[in-house]
Amino acid sequence: MPRTAHSRRWYRTGEAPGGLTDFTVSVGETDLHIWTSTVGLRDLALARVVLSRRQVEAFLDRYPEVRFQLDPFVVPDEGLLPAMIRDMIAATRTAGVGPMAAVAGAIAEAVGRELLEHADRVIVENGGDIFMAGQKEYLVGIHAGPSVLSDRVAVRLRRDEPFAAGICTSSASVGHSLSFGCADAAVIYADNSVLADALATATANRVGRPGDLQPAVREALTVPGVRGAVIIIGRDLAAGGELELVSLGPRQPG
Fold first, then answer.
1. 3 state SS of 30
2. What is the rounded distance in angstroms from the CA atom of residue 143 to the CA atom of residue 167?
3. All domains of the chain, ordered by start, with CATH?
4. pLDDT by residue (tens digit) across 165-182?
5. Which of 26, 83, 88, 139 has its CA 20 to 30 A from that of 73?
6. What integer pLDDT is reported at residue 4 of this predicted model?
7. Cβ distance 165 to 190 under 8 Å?
């Protein structure tokens, strides 16, 4: 799996969404924080994580070059692969990045969809890549590393009916993910977390200076299935799409 050992997840110290129970599931480098409207789903989530990781590992065993692939990957027998792997390949092909750029979002989506069979509200967070379903409104804070805007801005996502979506972040200054840009946060809101993860990586790669922010947002919004984008570099921010920016007030020390 592509991610190295993780540190304490600072963003998991806030209050749980109202009416939901939460738990964590960790297997290897996969470390999920999950909220559901139904109790007792941890074992089911764990089983889905184990299955998802086995599918990824089998894919890497068969195509070891994919582990470090930075461009879209063409698989001759793609139709024979598990659905989650096919989704990763399709999303990263759309984004123009390597298949492993969407693995965190893919696992979050797979686990979330499994839990939705037993709960009407689910949120799965996987290292800042989030799948969410069952609510009309979500408020998601943005951590942007050393930026003065880090933890001071959130996005509100709202629709008339309960919905499922993904919101994922890529950063050149936070975490272990490879980025060729300098964005402190490139956040993509999409119809699923697989696409959101892939496009977040691609969008972050395109941003080398503040002048790239608005063009990168506009380009992300041209992709079918992408509903919103926010990019932060230092004191500069650009946003667009079906989202509302919300101020969280001064950044707290520590």
1. strand
2. 13
3. 10-247 (3.10.520.10)
4. 999 999 875 545 545 567
5. 26
6. 27
7. yes
Q: Which of the four pLDDT bands, split at 50, 70 and 90, describes residue 9?
A: very low
Q: Is residue 8 predicted with pLDDT exceeding 50?
A: no
Whether 35 shows a pLDDT value over 80: the answer reads yes
Sign of the C-alpha dihedral computed for residues 90, 94, 99 and 102 taken in this order: negative
pLDDT digit string, tens, across residues 125-150: 998 899 999 999 999 999 888 888 98
**Are 188 and 167 spatial neighbours (Cβ–Cβ below 8 Å)?**
yes
User: DSSP string covering the chain, please?
Assistant: ---------GGG-SPPPTT-EEEEEEETTEEEEEEESSSS-HHHHHHHHHHHHHHHHHHHHH-GGGGG--S----TTGGGS-HHHHHHHHHHHHHTS-GGGGHHHHHHHHHHHHHTTT-S-EEEEETTEEEEEEEEEEEEEE--TTSTTTTTEEEEEEEEEEEEEEEEEE-SSSSS---SS--SEEEEEESSHHHHHHHHHHHHHH-SSGGGHHHHHHHHHTSTTEEEEEEEETTEEEEEES-EEEE--SPPP-
Using an 8 Å Cβ cutoff, are 239 and 154 in contact? no
158 neighbors 136 (Cβ within 8 angstroms): yes
